Amino acid sequence: xxxxxxxxxxxxxxxxxxxxxxxxxxxxxxxxxxxxxxxxxxxxxxxxxxxxxxxxxxxxxxxxxxxxxxxxxxxxxxxxxxxxxxxxxxxxxxxxxxxxxxxxxxxxxxxxxxxxxxxxxxxxxxxxxxxxxxxxxxxxxxxxxxxxxxxxxxxxxxxxxxxxxxxxxxxxxxxxxxxxxxxxxxxxxxxxxxxxxxxxxxxxxxxxxxxxxxxxxxxxxxxxxxxxxxxxxxxxxxxxxxxxxxxxxxxxxxxxxxxxxxxxxxxxxxxxxxxxxxxxxxxxxxxxxxxxxxxxxxxxxxxxxxxxxxxxxxxxxxxxxxxxxxxxxxxxxxxxxxxxxxxxxxxxxxxxxxxxxxxxxxxxxxxxxxxxxxxxxxxxx
Length: 381
Ligand SMILES: [Zn+2]
Fold this sequence. Notes:
Layout: H1 2-6, H2 13-24, H3 28-31, E1 43-56, E2 59-68, H4 75-78, E3 79-86, H5 94-112, H6 130-134, E4 144-151, H7 154-161, H8 199-205, E5 225-226, H9 229-253, H10 259-280, H11 312-328, H12 336-355, H13 363-366, H14 371-380
Parallel strand pairs: 1-4, 4-5
Antiparallel strand pairs: 1-2, 2-3
Helix pairs in contact: 9-10, 9-11, 9-12, 10-11, 11-12, 12-14
The structure holds zinc ion.
Zinc ion (ZN) binds near residues 173 and 176.
């Protein structure tokens, strides 16, 4: 049961975490963890995640959860809830700061692999208490855990870390000096290249009031605020890629059609294909039938994009379905092969990320791809 939580393949849980940590060698956060090589195989890398969620009508709650970085799959089977706070009782900064401090305490205990001698305020447990009697003994047969990453969307990052550099500010990046004016420049000589701040530089540039309370979590640094698949792929790239490929496919079928005719194709041909694919693959289909508004195609000059009515889990399945659909359309219209290959590349990318940790192999392992090469993977595959 325990190993199942640590790694996808419970028989090799130790090897999986060992491999994870050996990939982290050389990273700034890793040097601050003080993790010895002989302890790699018994130390779980922990990802922390927080998100604001609508729970009932207009009520919102903040949920903090954590998981092993070497475990992939459905959230219900791989993640554990740490705390849930209603937004209405959140006091600006202090509530999230307190949570971060509490996480810092938990991680400091998990690092030792042993029950603690003191509580979260540093007070020793009363002598006759159960906590005092088990203090110092192993809680998981010698296994330990260390911080490996923090994940949240842009709003969550500002709320949790009080970053002055954030998505709505002129200085748009929490990790480097990119601004609104230059962040879209992906060339190697862009002004912000090479301006990533070290942890110490970040701490010195912050007023005490603005310093993230996550400095209490050993290993955390802005660099370990990682991108998550949900926001980058399923609610990002895929929303645009799916809608664009599908719209272009339908439009190429008859270049002279009207928007009303296009909508008819969406609601019939395309929708029926999606529904029967879901039935064949035992997936629960989404109930929102395709139309112009939901595919972002109400005007000929609009850029297609799936509407927010399609949630992450639905989009995840739609990547596979649209790859299958476009596969069938090969050779029927101009550009059909290119669209098929683009979506096939996206589906393969998703499959590799969700089923195994390894996706950059061969030459890419020796030399990481540049941002430009990485974005070209999708279009040239
Ligand atoms: Zn940056």
